[in-house]
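Box 3.1 A note on notation
Throughout this textbook, protein chains are presented in two layers. The first layer is the amino acid sequence; the second is a token string describing backbone geometry. Keep the layers aligned when reading.
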Amino acid sequence: MMRLKYLAARYDEPFATLAHHMNASPSVAPYHLQLNGKLLPLVEPLIMGIVNCTPDSFYDGGQFFDSKSAVHHGLKLIEAGADVVDIGGQSTRPGAANISVSQEWERIQPAIEGVLEKQPDAWISIDTFHAEVARRALVAGAKMINDVTAGTHDPEMFPTVASFEVPMAIMHIQGTPETMQQAPAYDSVVFDVYQWLEKRCIEAKKAGISDIIIDVGFGFGKTLEHNYALLDQLALFHQLGHPILVGVSRKSMIWKPLETTPESALNGTTALHSWALDRGAHFLRVHDVAEAKEAVALHRLLRAKRPLPGPPIS
């Protein structure tokens, strides 16, 4: 945070224009994540495929609600090239109500077990903000937790994840899924989200979590303008010193301005994925794996002499 204030004072510029200064000296050494007892270097962006075991997610809610369909879809994502399969049983679309731990676990347990039965080495992430669901999933073989509340919903989440020594994605949200889009407001969205994530990273580290992935939370308590300001200044968040996950797939920030639907938002999704990759995203959380892999492959040619950003040089 001191570096942030120093740069603001030095350049005497609005905060929103500082990203290019702050991203001037990224490390060429990659981030590493602990996975299966080994260090995984993040030298290429990874694709996280989505399995929504829910009846009401905004795009594919209900398609994979039964366990057989969820397992089949998870295996198809892996076959298409997904590096990570993100399984969730709690819808986090705007207006979604919370369900119980038992309901959530009932939805995702068969999917976890079914995918691992066919693909024992699969990297499964669990999209949950309940510590008990996270614990059960990690015991069952999941290797990562993706919490859209960054541990703020359940105070046991950080200690639980730390005890399993697995990576955790922490996301910024204003409000809750049920209330987040009612009237989102910020003094400066980029600055406010940066500060919030910085504080949550500090708390996660205090709890003993070593491998933190950050997510600015597109669509989670943000207006259209907020979302595009964050995407524009995404490179700034490298200064927090953690890999960046981007989740924009088929969201309303794409289909609403294009006056279309989530079902018709694949082309817009690919455009935003390309912009996120060029700002140094390490993970893309997607519905459409093959198309995202193509974006990564083409972007690899664009940044042939630009390594994926690693920890910042202090």
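Residues 6-26 have pLDDT under 50 and may be disordered. The CA atoms of residues 254 and 268 lie 6 Å apart.
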